[in-house]
Records
---
Amino acid sequence: MQVAGKVIVVTGGANGIGRALCERFVHDGAKSVIVADLDFELASSAAHELGDPASAIGCNVAIEDQVRELVTLTLAQHGRIDLFCSNAGVTVKGTECTPDHDWQRLWDVNVMSHVYAARAVLPSMLERGEGYLLQTSSAAGILTEVGSAAYSVTKHAAVSFAEWLSIKYRRRGIRVSCLCPAGVQTQFLNDEDTIHQFLATSAVTPEDVAECVVQGLLEERFLLLPHHQVQEFFAFKGEDYDRWLHNFSRIAQKLERMEQKSKKPE
């Protein structure tokens, strides 16, 4: 899919990967780019800086009515949505003992937001016989994130849902891509977190991610991986699952020791 001339919605579009996507889409000649974000003021500022053809809409993607309203307003103003980028996401550190309310919050934002977007935007796309869904998951969705059980589980679910959508609607003109970056140089990376420090050593820029996305859309690839090492780890996982689990557990153990060491008083 060529970005030029397309009507595009990006959730979580006010900063980070979402902001870089919006900037790239405007640069590549999109007809309209809707910067959707929980922080409407920040989204408005981003849209103003991007200039025409960007506009802003406030949206809490964890609330289905707001996602539906986002789609309704966009269709009313622009007549169609060619590409819906379901990009917003959240994380929390923790194990199986992470509080239920945090599990639920990550489930609502990292999984159900994709479901809400599909429910809202697919009818008009299917009626036209074409449309594209870009869903941001994470490398944690095809590998794991040892520092957060809830993040890993919800990102795996996001990949699974994107896969299901691709299989279900491919023959009806709907294309689906799933973006799975590892470390990206945004505020999402916590400098005080040992695991995030590890991810930062190979982190790419949001602009690098946007470049990967544009190329992936052009080729209509399902899995978009801005980090070459993620592709290698994912391939190894499929070749020898048990060995992959063993090796990843060693990494987890090493990171845990590093974290414990960092907490010791000087």
---
Amino acid sequence: MGKRKKSSRKPAAPKRKDPLDTQFTCLFCHHENSVSVKMEKKEGLAQLSCRICDQRFQSKINHLSEPIDVYSEWIDAADEAEKETLSQRRPAASSSRSRPAAPPSVSDDE
């Protein structure tokens, strides 16, 4: 058996991980980079707050959680709250006034 040829291919460079966002756009006041997430992994809690409109959200986290996960949970919770609000509203009430009576029809017999 013969010797193997050395490959001319260069070894692949390690992939760089792009850092995940830590500042987000507020759902309520729409200011960019105004929402920050403070994570307390030892306590298992994360707190999200907007520095402009002071909206707040708190969530349970685990050792794998990231700020983007908390922001996503906030979006889901806001959507769910909006759906509940819409479902609790009564349908638009119709007018309490009765419809005007149709004008009497005139017959040719008279």
